Structure formats: C-alpha cells, structure tokens
Amino acid sequence: MSASLSWLSALAAGLLAARVVQKLWFPYFWRDLFFLMKVIRYGVKLELFKLTASVHTVLDRFIEQAQRIPNKPFVIYDGTVYTYRDMELRSNRLANVFLHNVHLKKGDCVALLMSNEPDFLSAWFGLAKVGCSVAFLNFNIKSKSLLHCFDCCGAKTLIIGSDLLECLDGILPSLLKSSIQVWTMKSHCEHPQVQTLQDKIDAASHQPVPAVLRATNSLKKTNLYIFTSGTTGLPKAAVITHLQSLKAAGGFWAFGATEADVIYIPLPLYHSAASLIGIGGTIELGATCVLKKKFSASQFWTDCKKYEVTIFQYIGELCRYLCNQPKTEFDQDHKVRMGVGNGLRQDVWREFLSRFGNIKMCEVYGSTEGNLCFMNHIGRIGVVGRSNFFYRLLFKYDLVKYDMTKEETVKDLHGFCQRVKKGETGLLLAKVSTLSPFFGYAGSKQLTEKKLMKNVFVKGDTYFNTGDLMAEDKDGFICFKDRVGDTFRWKGENVATTEVTEILGLVDFIQEVNVYGVEVPGHEGRAGMAALILRPGLRFDGKKLFEHADRDLPTYACPLFVRLQEVMEMTSTFKQQKFQLVQSGFNPSTISDPLYVLDYQQKSYIPLTQLIYNSIICGERKL
Fold first, then answer.
1. What CA–CA distance (Å, rounded) separates 35 from 256?
2. DSSP letters of 545-564?
3. Pairing mode, strands 195-196 and 181-184
4. How far is it, in rounded angstroms, from Cα 340 to Cα 275?
5. Is 530 strand, coil or helix?
6. Contact, 316 vs 306, CB < 8 A?
7. For a disulfide at 249, which of 166, 284, 378, 387, Cβ 3.0-4.6 Å?
8. According to CATH, what is the number of the domain 391-432+445-483?
9. Residue 429 pLDDT grade (very low, low, confident, very high; cuts 50, 70, 90)
C-alpha cells in the first residue's frame, strides 16, 4: 500500500514538475498544439480531395449552406438582409443569363469591375456556376493599367457595376476593338455598345444550371484572378486556384469563429482578404456578414452595435482611423470580440485595445499569390505570426541575409544564401513544394519566374521570394520589418514603383524618375515620393504633374512628395539607388534639394516648406 502511495506521489510530483517546466520554457505549447491540430485537420480534408473524383469547392459549400440554412441572413448590406436562399436564387438567375444571353461557356474568363455590393457576390457565384473563371478588377486603376488586366487573364467579357460606368470613359473603344463584350448591371444604358443585364435577370429562371458546369476534379484548377502590384510596372494577375480559395476560407474557423458570428467586411472585395478570407470564411462557417460599400470610421461602431457584429476585418490603417475618431462614452459598448487582418502597428494596436476593449486581434501574414501564411493565433501585440518546430516541419521557410544598399541577398563563398540568427532581420523566403505550391501569374512566364529563387541553399532547390524583411525571436514570434524591391504599401494598397515611374516619365519636362516610399509618423506603410531630374532647359510645373498623375494613377499611387535632383544615384549593378533616398525622407531642413508636396486644394505640387512639413509631422495636414 505504501509502495503504491509512493508511486502515485512520485507520478504526481513528476507531472507537476513537467507542468512547471512547460509553463516556464514552453508557455505556448498547448495553444500551439491545438491550433496546429486544427490547421492539420483542415489540410487533411483538402488532401483527401486528391483521392476523390471531384473537389468540394467554396461554391459547393455555399450551395450546401443555402440548402441547410436557407433563411439565415448571409449578407446584410445598407440595412437590407439577403438570406442564403436569396443569394442562391439571384446567382442562379445570373447563371442562366450568362449561359443563355451572354453565351458564356465553361472555361471562359470574365472580368468583374464592381464595387462592394450584393450583386458582386451574385455575379461571382453565377459565373462560377457556369464554369467561368473570374478576374476581380480594382476599380481604382485607370486606362492603360485597366486594359492591361484584360491582356493578362484573357478575359473577353466585362461585367461592370451600374455605379462604375464612368470607368469606361476613354477605354470603351479599345475594349470593343479587342472584341470584349461589355455588360452592366442596369436595365437601360446610355452607351449603345454596353449591354444590360438587369432586364434579363428579371426575366430569367431561378432554377439551377447543370452542376456539371461548375464541377472540377482538380484542386489546382484556376477559379479566380486577383491583381497585385507588378514590379514590371503594371498589375499582375495572380492565379487563384480552388486550393488557395479553400485554404483562405478556413481562416476564421482556425481562429475560433463559429456560425453564430456576425462578420463585418469593410475592405474591397477585389482584394483577397475580403473575398477569399471574408466571404469565403463566412460561407465555410455558415455565418452572417455585414458588407460595406466603403469603410467609414464614423459609422463603424454604430454599425457594429446595430448589427451585433462579433468579428471584423481590418488593415492597420483602418484601425488608426478608428483611433483618430473623437472619444465617446460608448467606445466599448459593442459585442466585437475579434479582429482579423494585417498591418497593425504596435502603438495603434495598444491604443485600439485600450480604447475599444479586450478584442483579440488576429494578424495574418501572406500575399495573394504567396505559398506561405503566418497566423498570430496567440494575439501577441506587434507580431504577424507564430512559428514553432512543428510548423517548420510542415511549412519550409527561411530568413536570409539581405543587403539593403545593394538590394540583393548576401551570398557565401559557394554562392548560397545565408540564414540570419534568431532576432536578426532577414528576407523571407518560402520553399516551393507539393505541400506549398506556387501557382504564379497569368500571362508571361517571366513574371512567375521573377518571384522564384533557385539554388538558394543547395543546388536544385526553389523558393518563393516574398520581398518582405522579417525577424523571428527566440520564442517563435515573427515580426514584419519592411518591404524591399520595387513595391511599397500606402492606404492599404500595394504601389508598384515602376508603374508610377513609367507614367510620370511621360511628362514632358521630366528626364528621369526614381519612385520610392518614405515613412510618415503616425501613418501605416510608406508615402510615395518621386525623385526627378528635369530635362535641360525645362522647368518644374507642379500643376501639369498633378494633372498627369491624377488622370492616370490611382489616388493611393500618386506621389505625395517630389524631390528635384541634379544627378540620379545608381547602385553598383546600375539600378537606381533608393536606399539613401528612403533614409533621408522628406525633411526640408536636412535636404538641400528642392522639395514639393501634393496639394489637392490647389491641384498642384507646391513647395514643401518647413511650416508644411511640421504640420504633416504633427498630424494637422491630412495626407
């Protein structure tokens, strides 16, 4: 008896000691394990599709939910409730119109240029039901860039929202010349060459089209194209497969969301965050989403309280806008328990929680086309993701040394990349494998190849170059540090410096342009700045530059600052030197070159004085 008691006491002491060691040295062990088990469970489900004759897609899941919970609200938009059944029948009508009136067939690619509205989803689902791939167009891009998008994905049909017809100004003849048919969500249209959908939808059947049209037997089948900033100067069409769509749709579920949640989506649907994670995640759960046409800081908490929102999607800039709103006694009078997004700065994060309550902010890191995703399921402030031994077994990634001045990776004597030490900043590379494939971009193979690095650590290996500098601490928490190369982020959008360079280079008084991003205190990302060299004998014209940039560039891509230089510095490999320019910023007291700032009131670039600079730094002047 005493021996048994001794054995039990020893066991209890051992378990207690193990618990203490786990708490001290592995404090996140169980949370990591349970989260990873959820991810693996979801991944196994996707892998099993490879063993079956057909794939259960996000669209199939939507149709399944419409049968299971037909009367449950799926989308709430501008106060109107659309149930799962409502959206199912509406998308059926559109599918019949696409099949019989627009004469689309399985395999066609259709471009969708629409604002956030329920019919974005109806058109998206309707096109998918007839087996078409859909290209989501950013309604901010203009003329040349918009036409380029059709060339990328091969779309020969455009569906345009009734509120975006002005986007056709100047490009409709080019679209028609390229044999692209244009349809709009209206009953009548002033453009005789633009055909109408609404009158045909009203007359169409709500019966489903044959299921064989949407069926697929491959997870790697392309179902969407989502455009990202192109380092070649124009947007790139990232290939989105069923595999990527299904992975993204599991995001909310992995963070602990349920079908009882109400999800607030204020981000644009043409981006993967809102469409793949937001809408896809809502469908996977069988939850309800509140869709906003456009984010409004003043309406945000009113909406959250009115619709009993429990989860919201964000980008860091959105949270900063909310923190800048006047404080009220109702700041914590809501049911929001979780935010899912990316780009949240530490200072804004802390202020947001302090002011609006104990909301779990779940940062997600991953590019639209990338093959790697980090998820901060712990909620640690200031980090984009969490890694551990088990995660590294499944998802191979490395941080390698990067020379910012030369804008290239640092190689060893054998020509291979060098890993950084824990806590050091390095370029994030993700290994391309069967578990983590990279599907690339539509169009030129060079675009896809440019994002890949070969022979990184050994001969024959291949890695996806994220273009992001990251650091991982000893506890496995991963922090975003900076972007490298020819892209920076502003107002929640990626800006391709080469696209801006090409467009500004068309201005008659400009000889050479170097575009880059500079940090502005109190703002997420980097503001655009252009270093210019003027043509001999010509003068800088702020009004002409403004008119050109405003006409041909999205608002977020227009440079906020201009710097006139005598000589453009180059790197040792004859590329424009950006690092020193980025470091020097836009302070007129430390820069001898003439500086200008974008002024929307005067519709011009005006001299950047110390007074204006100070007003920008203290937040008085809005950018």
1. 9
2. HHHHHHHHS-GGGS-SEEEE
3. parallel
4. 13
5. strand
6. no
7. 284
8. 2.30.38.10
9. very high
Buried b (16+ CB within 10 A) or exposed e, 77-103: beeeebbbbbbbbbbbbbbbbbbebbe
CATH number for the domain formed by residue range(s) 87-243: 3.40.50.980
Give the containing element (helix H, strand E) for 111.
strand 109-113
What SS3 class is residue 290?
strand
Token pair belonging to 504:
């500004």
Which two three-digit tokens encode residue 70? 């037909």
pTM: 0.84
The tokens for 481 are 């540090």
What pLDDT, in 10s, does the model give residues 216-261?
988 899 999 999 875 445 788 999 999 999 999 999 999 999 999 9
Cα 401 from Cα 424, distance rounded (Å): 9
- What topology does CATH give the domain 487-617? GMP Synthetase; Chain A, domain 3 (3.30.300)
As beta bridge partners, residue 228 has: 236
What is the widest separation between alpha-carbon atoms in the chain? 103
User: Length of the chain in residues, anyone?
Assistant: 623
* 3-class SS of residue 339: strand
Q: b/e for 196-223, b at 16 or more Cβ within 10 A?
A: bbeebbeebeeebbeeebbebeebeebb
Reference 608, options 529, 553, 519; nearest CA is: 529
Query: Helix/strand/coil (H, E, C) string of 426-462?
Result: EEEEEECCCCCCCCCECCCHHHHHHCEEECCCCCCCE
Where along the chain do its domains lie? 87-243, 391-432+445-483, 487-617
Contact 155, 183 (CB under 8 A): no
